[in-house]
Amino acid sequence: MAMNAMNAMEGLKFVKCPEYTDLADGAPCALCDTRKPDSQTIGGPGGIRICRDCVSLCNDILADRDKEAKQKTIDDLVSIEARMPDGYQPHELIAAIYQAIENGNVSGLEVIS
Fold first, then answer.
1. In angstroms, rounded to a whole number, what is the distance separating the alpha carbons of residues 106 and 67?
2. pLDDT, tens digit (0-9, with 9 covering 90-100), for 6-24
């Protein structure tokens, strides 16, 4: 009986069903080119659409960049403090930080008058 079932299956071909995103009616995402319903995309100028998944990925990338920039700023400030002479006063550290920011030696910060 098992042999009959195997003979019957020899002629079968399986076709992969299309993904849901291929069946969606919306415009394709400008970044990943998948089609999703308009309710799951954000519209931009010129009729472009960006899907929720790509927006989320972009937000993650920007958050990582912000985190790296903040860490660089902290590292720059710690470096200034490490170069201060023994027995420095707090106002001397603040003056050194202010000067470094004004000279562009601290990333992510600027002096605004």
1. 15
2. 565 666 676 665 555 444 5
Residue 13 token pair: 């071909």
pLDDT digits (tens, 9 = 90+) for 55-109: 999 999 999 999 999 999 999 999 999 999 999 999 999 999 999 999 999 988 8
Give the CA distances from residue 35 to residues 21, 31, 38, 42, in Å, rounded to whole numbers and listed in that order. 5, 11, 9, 12
3-state secondary structure at position 75:
helix
Say what the pTM is. Answer: 0.62
The label of the residue with tokens 């009986």 reads 1
Closest to 34 (Cα-Cα) out of 44, 20, 55, 13 = 20
Cα–Cα separations (whole angstroms), residue 76 to 8, 104, 107? 72, 11, 7
Q: How far apart are the first and last CA of the chain?
A: 89
